[in-house]
Specification:
Elements (H helix, E strand, L loop, with lengths): L18 H8 L11 E2 L2 H10 L7 E5 L5 H8 L5 E5 L5 H10 L4 E5 L15 E6 L5 H9 L5 E9 H8 L9 H9 E9 L4 E2 L6 E8 L9 H13 L5 H4 L6 H8 L12 H14 L3
Parallel strand pairs: 2-3, 2-5, 3-4, 5-6
Antiparallel strand pairs: 1-8, 6-9, 7-9
The chain binds S-adenosylmethionine.
Length: 288
């Protein structure tokens, strides 16, 4: 038996109809190809919006507003300006209705977020707050991290397994390239898990909301491009010792010595600062 619907929890106080009604009126049946799993629970959308911090300043960028549940929570929580990027043109009408209730506070861009320079949108401080489409969530984050200093904060919903990788510490099975690059640039704080039943339709996996705050400076000096090459080599063969896995980058033993690392260690035990030291050694050797 499905859970009873808590109508009070799904009726925002903005005068617009409840989300289930919006979906029915606008014919927004969820499409798997667009990663559409909609959130109707206002407690959850409100929690995500509040995790954004001081959203009454600067710009909130939302990826994939869909029928607008989180968008309405953001505006209701006092967001000064929301720029929402949605690929599905069926959402145009519903987003226009929301914009009419919040004059000059919601701008919608119809398009693929992967093609848009999000780091240049609106005024700083920029916060990206989104229930991401899972099929493009990791490439989106990697693209934004290349311009990490343009952002104040990310509050993002991912599959739980992705957040486990983002936040993983050395010596754990989830620790890998994504952990190193993200933690080098940002502080990562998993906030809370969301049960699949909170979505319509429910996804197959548990989701997690994570807060990612770009650091004023990366954790240690390095060039991102070199760090990406070093982590690709090291974790590409994660069971091998560094002296074997780093061969593609040059004299692996010499690189480890220059970085102060044990050449018999494996990638999964090396802290972020160790990879930054390796990237500096690679650049100093001029071998990339
Ligand atoms: N924000 C809504 C919510 O929380 O109920 C919908 C979230 S749903 C998980 C993901 C949304 O992203 C969908 O509305 C989908 O159409 C949109 N989307 C999918 N791929 C996209 C892309 N490449 N660029 C922009 N939006 C995309």
């Amino acid at each position: 038996m499905s859970d009873p619907i808590d109508v009070a929890a799904e009726t925002p106080g903005d005068g617009l109809p409840p989300l289930r009604e919006v979906i029915a009126t606008h014919g927004l049946d969820a499409r798997r190809s667009l990663g559409q799993n909609f959130l109707f629970d206002l407690n959850l959308t409100g929690r995500i919006a509040r995790a954004g911090g001081e959203i009454d300043q600067g710009t909130v960028i939302e990826i994939g507003p869909g029928p607008g549940g989180l968008t309405r929570a953001l505006l209701g929580a006092g967001a000064r300006r929301v720029i929402a990027i949605e690929r599905d043109s069926r959402c145009r009408g519903v987003l226009a209705e929301i914009a009419a209730v919040w004059p000059s506070r919601l701008e919608t861009i119809e398009g693929d977020a992967l093609d848009i320079d999000v780091a240049a949108l609106g005024e700083a401080p920029r916060r990206v707050i989104a229930n991401l489409p899972y099929n493009v969530a990791t490439p989106l984050l990697i693209g934004w991290l290349r311009h990490a200093s343009a952002f104040e904060r990310f509050v993002l919903m991912f599959q739980k397994e992705v957040v486990d990788r983002l936040a993983a510490r050395p010596g754990t099975k989830d620790y890998g390239r994504l952990s190193v690059i993200t933690q080098w640039l940002c502080e990562v704080r998993p906030l809370f898990d969301v049960n699949p039943r909170a979505f319509t339709p429910p996804p197959k996996v548990v989701s997690t909301v994570v807060r990612i705050d770009p650091r004023p400076q990366p954790l240690a000096p390095a060039r991102m491009e070199t760090l990406e090459r070093v982590t690709a080599a090291a974790f590409g063969q994660r069971r091998k010792m560094l002296r074997a896995s780093l061969k593609a980058l040059g004299d692996a033993e010499a690189l480890c010595a220059a970085a102060g690392l044990d050449p018999t260690a494996r990638a999964e035990t090396i802290p972020v600062e160790g990879f930054a030291a390796l990237a500096r050694a690679v650049d100093a050797a001029g071998s990339v």
